[in-house]
Model the fold of this input.
Amino acid sequence: MAWLRDIDRWFVTSVLPYADNYRAYARKLTSDEADAEDLVQEAYAKVLGVPDWKRLEAPERFVLTIIRNLAYERFRRAKVVGIRQIGVLEMDALADPSPDAYAVTSAREELDRVLAALDRLPEQCRKVLTLRKMHGLSPGQIAVRLNLSVSTVEKHLAKGLKLLTKALAASDGRSFAKRSSSWVKRAIKTETR
Done:
């Protein structure tokens, strides 16, 4: 098979193994065996015409997208389209619930910031916060595990959360000014009477 080009080898190993999936998807869109086969063959021709085929990370999804787009194009040009086919196309137009690349990257950066801020906390606060927020233990369970009183655990939780909030606000460029709310003022007045 020395006469095969690189793209031919790639096509045979990365695209053709999913031929049954392509045909099933095309049949779902067209409800006709012959039209489905035409869509698949047309998609193959388009894939083989892609200049940067080596950069395709998911060839199967790429071919399925081409098939869907070709079906849209045919339905748009058709004089009469079956109700069932319109329903299938509308279902495909629903938004993908998975997060986009920006959301994933943003969440990873946020997680890195939180973990870095958590590492800078005093040791006992870090342990208590990790056990409470990441492992879901109650203050009583944390107290038993760390051989502390529940009151001490709650104080470490409060201190750790305050320090963590300050650190995250500072890394965002926001100021974390201590705000004096009305209920705090009323509590102080009540205690001094």
